[in-house]
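Why show two proteins at once? Because comparison is the fastest way to build intuition. When a single record is shown, students tend to memorize it. When two are placed side by side, the eye starts asking what differs. So, the first record is below.
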Amino acid sequence: MKHLRDYIELQKYTDMSDMEIITSYFIDNDIEEEAMELSHNLAKSKIEKMKHRQDIIKTWAYTIPSDYLYENYPVDIAGMLHRIELDYIVNGKVTGNRLNWAKENFENIEMPSVYFQPCLGWLEKHDVRFKEN
């Protein structure tokens, strides 16, 4: 049985992609059944993530307290805070310019009394926090 590390070493000298290397590993070692089980587990994981996102969207998309944000923050800040929440709801994370904006600005903004808690948790895991009161 060839080890995966052997295939990774081989990859240094070929133009094979990661997927081609992994596929070759399973086929050459006659362990396609394990690959099928792996594929099944990955599909289940992806489905669960998609279901979770869909549940969040169904639960929160129309109840996000954006009125609160617009009543208590300048329009540009409220708009960005609201878009960050929506980005998290739709993508399961805060991405691109919104994440960069949060990293640059959250420390200067007081935390809203009402904000989407799963989004706050995700941001805190990525070291993005509102100003301490």
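Second record. Ask yourself what differs from the first in the token line.
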Amino acid sequence: MPLEIMSERLYLDRFFQDWHRRTMPPDADGIDLDFIGVCHSWKCRAPIYAIESTTRNNKPTTILKRLATGLGCTGIVVIHDTEKLIDFQVIYSPHEFQIPHEVQVEARLTAYLEALRHIHDLTHLTR
């Protein structure tokens, strides 16, 4: 099942996708982080996970790991092609658990993100 394109115009607009390649100094290091999942509670809003997506299996993860460590949240790299999610890798997590690999990757990622939110809710919202 292909991933849904939310805005065809922005998807096809290379300016929108490549702005950081043109505007950053040549010696700049960074990542264009794709998503930060935060707590639903307006009193909290703490980061729960940070996601970087890529089509490359060997994408460097040093910055994502340091960012997630500093935020105290889980850092995840999601690997995809133009049609589907292929896999995901947990780069850093303050929590120790896994979702069985027998589960389809999309369902495994969803279950993992839901588990992170549940752990956060149990440890932060019950205070």
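One difference worth noting in the second protein: The CA atoms of residues 49 and 85 lie 18 Å apart.
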